[in-house]
Prior knowledge:
90 residues; alpha+beta; globular
Amino acid sequence: MTHAVLIQVKLDPNSDIEHRHSILSDFVIPEAKALPGFEKGTWMNDGVGTGTCVVMFDSEDNAKSAVTALTPAVGPPVISSAVYEVEIEV
């Protein structure tokens, strides 16, 4: 059954969008795609300082194993992270 990792991080709301997108495109997304069981991911920004990503994996074990890789110490400060079982997807 599919499981999702939901992570929220603190972002500088005044940071350059092109820089953020290049970090995501060049580093974060390729690393996420390389994780075992990766299915898909979505990265979002509320525009006032919180970034949220939802990354889907094929199993609970793969999702739990991915949390550390998706929240590296060199990245933005993590507000929260959790693993959820996906019950319905449309």
